[in-house]
Write a structure and sequence with these properties.
This protein is α+β, with helices and mostly antiparallel strands and about 500 residues long. The protein contains 18 helices and nine strands. The protein has a five-stranded mixed sheet with strand order 1-2-4-3-9. A two-stranded antiparallel ribbon has the order 5-6. It has a two-stranded antiparallel sheet with strand order 7-8. It is globular.
């Protein structure tokens, strides 16, 4: 059944506290991402019950509603329009304190205090940093996907010698964004860290400007693009801090002139005489480390990476890997990590198929699998995670086992010198085929990547068939256990007792 974006948006808005409680709206491939002024005013249980909602991830004031690919774009547009139409002055975040408060108000205030205490306890610097870096790159994903697919199609045309009149134009269309991605990273970094977006973009543009070839730092002549997205990220981050330091230190009449000038000058010189060199060194180290890891411990590395990727997707932290993928593409022409990580989706598909076959008397679950499986085959695993495996518990673990097996398969052949890479990021699963790259030609790449997918499918299916369907899982699925169980991010993960449904949220 096709989702009505307007109806879904209308249902979601009051459940997140109304338009006055919504500070920002964004989306990625599958999630509507909201930043709420007062998370206590949102109703997680009711959100989970909205038709079309596949799951909920809560990270403090950031609420991520999983809707699935395609649907999320339409719902986000309808949601933004409804927020604009119904916006009203913000209401007080909590009932005022005082002796006249009712018992219900006292309990609500106490609950808000406990939630805030839990949020502070779980907001570790590392998790916070990863989320903020992810927030820089999530808005870039649509362009990365579009340009990546066009680059793959163009590569096939070039290799086949077809349409020679069109391939130069496709090359320009597909590569222009990647050539200037540093500027977009700079804009988003400044926006995320409290600076002026255009100043962040101006400083990050230095990284790709041809004129840097005339600058020498630490005895080395710089090259345009040196440091790549890591250099752009560092440059724009520094610009945001310099700008915030300048604000209020100059007279108001001069602030509009001096603050942008000082920001660009200080951050720009630091970028040329330090950050580009340092980021270039880090970028080279990332490429060297990835090559060494697969050449020496390929099977084990693939096992670990493929097995742990689903939990990263579940927590929304997989977006933090985008800078690493982009760095490897800049350094080596392709990222060898993406095909291995894509095996996690294969394990998820195998697990879902096993559940579909074994749980014949669970029509609601089987319907969810049928609707989510096409996206899973294309590498979008969140609908299957939140709608199928995670709520049932143990199948999530057996899906991870399938991903680990597929990753180990590709890692083993990488040790033999047959590495499989991807020329762009975004697509996964079967959608990754047009983007495959390697040293031994298309037939070898096709065979290796297909072998990895089939291994992931087979092990995910077998592990789920043998170990993933306990009596508890069968009873929960047959009884129509709710899918899309929401997660409070720091506490999210496979259930502590394998075979039991995921615990209900405490939020």
């Amino acid at each position: 059944m096709r989702t009505d974006p307007a109806a879904t948006a209308a249902a979601l808005l009051p459940l997140v506290g109304g338009p006055a409680n919504v500070r920002s709206v964004a989306h990625c491939m599958t999630r509507l991402r909201l930043v709420l002024a007062d998370p206590a005013r949102a109703d997680a249980t009711a959100l989970r019950a909205v038709p079309g909602v596949l799951g909920l991830v809560v990270e403090g004031d950031s609420w991520q509603i999983v809707l699935g690919p395609g649907v999320v774009t339409r719902v986000t547009a309808a949601f933004e329009e409804r927020v604009r139409e119904t916006a009203a002055p913000p209401a007080p975040a909590h009932p005022a304190t005082g002796p006249g408060r009712s018992a219900a108000e006292e309990l609500a205030a106490r609950g808000a205090e406990l939630r805030e205490a839990r949020r502070r306890r779980n907001a570790t610097p590392l998790k916070t940093a990863l989320r903020r870096v992810a927030a820089v790159f999530v808005p870039l994903i649509p362009a990365l996907i579009g340009c990546g697919i066009l680059a793959g199609v163009n590569g096939l045309l070039l290799n086949a010698g077809l349409l020679p009149w069109l391939t130069p134009a496709l090359t320009a269309v597909a590569s222009a964004f990647m050539a200037l991605i540093a500027v977009f990273v700079g804009v988003n970094t400044a926006k995320e860290f409290g600076g002026t977006p255009v100043l962040g973009g101006a400083v990050a543009a230095i990284v790709v400007h041809p004129g840097v070839a005339k600058v020498t730092a630490f005895g080395v002549t710089l090259a345009p693009g040196q440091g790549g997205v890591l250099g752009a990220l560092a440059a724009a981050l520094l610009a945001a801090y310099v700008e915030r330091w300048c604000r209020g230190r100059f007279p108001e009449t001069l602030d509009v002139l001096l603050t942008p000038t000082v920001t660009v000058l200080v951050a720009g010189l630091a970028t040329l005489y330090g950050l580009m060199w340092a980021a270039g060194t880090v970028s080279t180290a990332v490429g060297t480390a990835a090559t060494w890891l697969l050449d020496t411990t390929g099977a084990f590395a693939g096992l670990v990476l493929g097995g742990l990727f689903l939990p990263l997707v579940m927590l929304g932290l997989h977006q933090a890997l985008i800078p690493l993928h982009t760095t490897l593409i800049e350094q080596q022409g392709s990222t060898v990590l993406l095909p291995i990580l894509a095996m996690a989706g294969a394990g998820q598909v195998g697990a879902a198929l096993a559940l579909y076959v074994r749980l014949r008397h669970a029509p609601s679950l089987r319907a969810t699998i049928r609707s989510a499986l096409p996206a899973g085959l294309l590498g979008v695993g969140e609908p299957l995670i939140y709608g199928v495996s995670l709520p049932l518990g143990r199948p999530f673990l057996t899906a991870c086992a399938g991903g680990a097996a597929g990753g180990a398969f590709l890692g083993f052949f990488a040790m033999l010198g047959d590495r499989v890479g991807a020329t762009a990021i975004g697509p996964s699963g079967w959608a990754l085929f047009p983007l495959l790259a390697g040293d031994h030609g298309w037939p070898t790449l096709l065979a290796l990547y297909t072998g990895g997918l089939l291994t992931g499918y087979a092990v995910g299916f077998t592990a789920t068939w043998l170990f993933g369907v306990t009596e508890e899982v069968r009873a929960a699925a047959t009884a129509g256990a709710p899918t899309g169980t929401p997660l409070t991010e720091p506490e999210a993960g496979p259930p502590a007792s394998p075979g039991a449904p995921a615990p209900a949220p405490t939020r």
